[in-house]
Amino acid sequence: MHREKKINIKNFEIIDQVKNSNYPELHSTALYPEWYLIAGPSVEEKLIRDFKQITLNINPELSVVKQTHIQGFVEPLSMEPLIELLTTLEIAPFSNSN
User: Fold this and answer.
1) I want to staple 1 with a disulfide (CB 3.0 to 4.6 A). Which of 6, 16, 47, 82 is the partner?
2) Is the pTM of the predicted complex or chain greater than 0.70?
3) Do 17 and 26 contact (CB within 8 A), yes or no?
């Protein structure tokens, strides 16, 4: 919104700002991956390994990568902090309500 001139970031105070050299945007919360890449049980192991290697080594200078705004891929992260957050906030499917 700041880049689009919809707000002036100087009018805001970032409380408990998190500094992360891999993520240039201002933020105060934990970062979570936007997309997970998952292989089904019928996918051959070699294809999974090859695909993983290609995605982890993606070239950020390729025009298609720039056009799609892909920042890159990382090794799978634990979902435990996200599950804990959703459970604490009682958000389905991690809520205790029936």
Assistant:
1) 6
2) no
3) yes
CB 79 within 8 A of CB 94: no
33's CB contacts (< 8 A; 6+ apart) are: 74, 77
Chain centroid to Cα 25, Å, comes to 13
Q: Which of 93, 95, 58 is nearest to 73 (CA)?
A: 58
Q: Which residue has the tokens 């309500």?
A: 97
List, run by run, the mean pLDDT of 10-residue segments along the chain (98 residues). Answer: 91 88 80 82 96 92 88 84 90 78
Nearest to 74 by CA among 20, 43, 29, 32: 32
